[in-house]
């Protein structure tokens, strides 16, 4: 299983096991190439979030947060 887990996108994998997860832009800060974005989601009344240099990475890190905390699945840093 680890080899297939390494190939999965955390956002797609979370949607496979959870269903329609809705992400929200929580905020952004910085300027130019130093921008940082924060994305979040709420599952069963519990908030999860992730940050990254763009919205896509922030969403991916948010999905990793959900997978790690809710399902105890640690996605590789790919």
Task: Set down the secondary structure blueprint.
Layout: H1 2-7, H2 10-18, E1 24-29, E2 36-43, E3 46-52, H3 55-70
Antiparallel strand pairs: 1-2, 2-3
Describe the structure.
The chain is 40% helix and 27% strand. With 78 residues, it is an alpha+beta fold. It has a 3-stranded antiparallel beta sheet with strand order 1-2-3.
- Strand line-up of the largest beta sheet: 1-2-3
Strand content: 25-35%
Q: Compute the number of helices.
A: 3
Radius of gyration: 13 Å
Cα end-to-end separation: 16 Å
Helicity, as a percent range: 25-40%
Descriptive key words:
3 helices; 78 residues; 3-stranded antiparallel beta sheet
Summed up, what is this model?
The protein has 78 residues and is α+β, with helices and mostly antiparallel strands. It is built from three helices and three strands; from the N terminus they run H-H-E-E-E-H. The protein has a three-stranded antiparallel sheet.
């Amino acid at each position: 299983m680890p080899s297939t887990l390494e190939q999965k996108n955390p956002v797609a994998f979370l949607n496979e096991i959870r269903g329609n997860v809705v992400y929200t832009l929580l905020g952004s800060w910085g300027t130019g190439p130093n921008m940082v974005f924060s994305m979040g989601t709420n599952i069963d009344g519990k908030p999860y979030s992730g940050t990254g240099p763009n919205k896509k990475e922030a969403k991916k890190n948010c999905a990793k947060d959900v997978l790690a905390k809710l399902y105890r699945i640690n996605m590789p840093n790919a």
